[in-house]
Specification:
It comes from Antrodiella citrinella. The protein is globular, with a radius of gyration of 27 Å. The chain is of the alpha/beta class. The chain has a five-stranded mixed beta sheet, sandwiched between helices. It has four domains: 45 residues, no CATH class; 169 residues; 154 residues, no CATH class; 69 residues, no CATH class. It contains 24 helices and five strands.
């Protein structure tokens, strides 16, 4: 790449935006000295931009990016689907993220291409009523000129989103644009799964005596209920807190694990968690946080794996007084194993979703029904937990009914060459299959093909033969199964808007986020931040900024307090 001052400026801008660098870095004497050294005699200090120049260039690039998006969306092959969500910065200011997803034909290669862009990262003042949010949301789509092209809007299940969609329906119908509050809405599927898990956990705490209402003999459930009344998940959290109360305790627990592995002591005492171990893993305990997929399951899973070592460590003479309360009885462990087995079902579904960079709508109903099927089976294998499982099944069926108010899922399923109408036949939804067949033509295809690549290859030869099918495919394929595209933006924004840099203006913050989304687009994984990360909830280190901000934003102050109390303290 030949050197030029313009290229230098562009690379500095990209580095600042993509790497979440402070704009003030260009004023640092040593940074400027480094660039002068690397530039040898080709640049002088006046060639290195100052803060004002960097800021104005970022805003100019943002303006050009917006114009490019507006122009590109004029030529989409189908409708523009959207995702939206809200985020609060360290100052408690709220921002609305809106991402757009659509299909275009590449001007050079003529290939059908899927595009996702960040339209806005907009400051939202005032109360978060659905009406207020709709005004900001509509203003954004109007800026881009896509109000007549809206496909599906994917959002979570918050009640103000119901009002938002009602207000959006009224606004668009008033302008003569067809739109339906239910038909054009997709409910974030991972959010539904997490709501279901939280419902199970809440019921376990709220109704520990529920197994008494089952058909099981009273003597079979008495000790089980006793353990449930102790709240075994809270007991696990206390054990984690106790074993991590100091650096010395953490090291001693690790030493206990290592010594047991050397002597083969754990070979016959490890608890079955569905995986085989030749020795006990030399890992640390995990803490949980309900804003992350599966984090409670992972905490329990790790606890059960390490329990023989925990039990031995807590029973040592030097620990017996301080840690006696941390020991769980055999009955408690049996109950905990059942809870672990139950939570593994939604965890498996979440793992399936997180394996996809962009979860597709065609996955939703099959995973819905798989979840319900597995939970119904669990009522037989885990009869004492059946009252809690019934709550989960009821919650899933409720949301499944809401999702059936739109035909987008059926269309998406049929458009998936690995599913087509097979899923509807197997699930027994004859009426749904008939409706889907009337909406589009059936195509014989091979399995295991990338959706966009498949339809590109198919329509190379059939676009003019099946124009209606082409239009349906271009409308449906970009629709998102979850709102995590926005959540991914919010996770990224936490790196930009830190406590140390919380005075960034709203306009500049939006420009930074939109440009960063473009620069980092090739590496985006929209499900990465839904999954519990060990670095966020592990035994080592401080409470991560990501976990702290999420709990603050969710108003989970008590949970944050527990997390901080469990955080790493100085060594004894």
């Amino acid at each position: 790449m030949p050197f030029s001052v313009e290229t230098l400026h562009r690379l500095i801008i990209e580095w600042i935006v993509e790497g979440d660098q402070s704009i003030n870095v260009v004023e640092a004497p040593r940074f400027r000295k480094l660039l002068l050294f690397l530039g040898s005699d080709r640049i002088s200090d006046k060639d290195i931009p100052h803060r004002d120049k960097v800021t104005s260039t970022i805003l100019k690039e943002y303006h050009l990016e917006r114009l490019n998006m507006i122009e590109e969306m004029k030529n989409t092959l189908g409708r523009v689907s959207l995702t939206t969500d809200l985020w609060s910065d360290p100052n408690r200011d709220s921002y609305m993220g809106v991402t757009a997803h659509y299909m275009v034909r590449d001007a050079k290669t003529h290939r059908i291409t899927y595009r996702d862009v960040l339209l806005a990262f907009r400051y939202v003042g005032g109360s978060h009523t659905g009406e207020n949010l709709e005004k900001e949301f509509f203003k954004i789509i109007e800026e881009y000129g896509i109000e007549k092209k809206i496909g599906q809007v994917t959002m979570d299940n918050a009640s103000n989103n119901n009002t938002l969609m009602e207000a959006l329906e009224r606004e668009l119908l008033k302008r003569g644009i067809p739109f339906h509050r239910d038909g054009n809405r997709v409910r974030c599927f991972p959010h539904i799964i997490n709501i279901t898990v939280q419902a199970i956990l809440e019921e376990l705490k709220r109704r520990p005596t529920a197994p008494y209402g089952s058909s099981l003999p009273l003597e079979d459930v008495f000790t089980y209920v006793e353990s449930l009344q102790k709240d075994p998940i809270s007991l696990v959290r206390k054990v984690v807190a106790t074993c991590r109360a100091s650096g010395q305790r953490r090291r001693d627990l690790q030493e206990t694990i290592k010594n047991g592995n050397k002597t083969g002591h754990w070979a016959t005492s490890m608890i079955d968690v569905g995986r085989e171990y030749t020795s006990m893993p030399e890992v640390q305990l995990l803490r949980d946080c309900e804003t992350r997929w599966s984090s409670t399951f992972l905490m329990i899973d790790r606890f059960l794996v390490l329990f023989p070592a925990i039990k031995q460590y807590c029973s040592l003479p030097q620990n017996s007084d301080a840690m006696a309360h941390a020991l769980l009885s055999e009955d408690d462990i049996n109950v905990l194993q059942d809870i672990h087995q139950l939570l593994e079902i939604p965890h498996a579904a979440q793992e399936l979703l997180s394996a996809e960079r962009t979860p597709t709508l065609s996955m939703v109903f099959p995973v819905f029904e798989l979840l319900i099927e597995q939970l119904n089976k669990a009522m037989k294998t885990l009869p004492k937990l059946s009252p809690f499982i019934e709550i989960a099944v009821s919650k899933l069926e409720e949301y499944m009914g809401q999702c059936r108010k739109t035909r987008i899922y059926a269309l998406a399923t049929v458009l998936n060459p690995s599913m087509k109408f097979d899923h509807m036949k197997k699930s027994g939804h004859v009426g749904e299959e008939a409706r889907a067949r009337s909406w589009m033509l059936e195509i014989e295809t091979e399995r295991g093909v990338d959706l966009v690549a498949f339809w590109h290859m198919y329509f190379q030869f059939k676009e003019t033969i099946y124009p209606a099918l082409f239009r349906v495919a271009m409308d449906v394929l970009p629709a998102q199964a979850s709102s995590v595209a926005c959540e991914r933006v919010f996770s990224s924004s936490k790196e930009t808007c830190t406590l140390r840099r919380s005075r960034i203006g709203a306009n500049l913050l939006e420009a930074l986020q939109v440009l960063k989304f473009r620069y980092k687009q090739d590496g985006l994984n929209f499900t990465e931040d839904l999954v519990a990360h060990e670095q966020d909830y592990s035994i080592s280190g401080r409470v991560s900024e990501r976990a702290t901000q999420e709990l603050l934003a969710a108003g989970r102050i008590d949970e944050l307090e527990d997390l901080i109390l469990n955080a790493e303290t100085s060594c004894e």
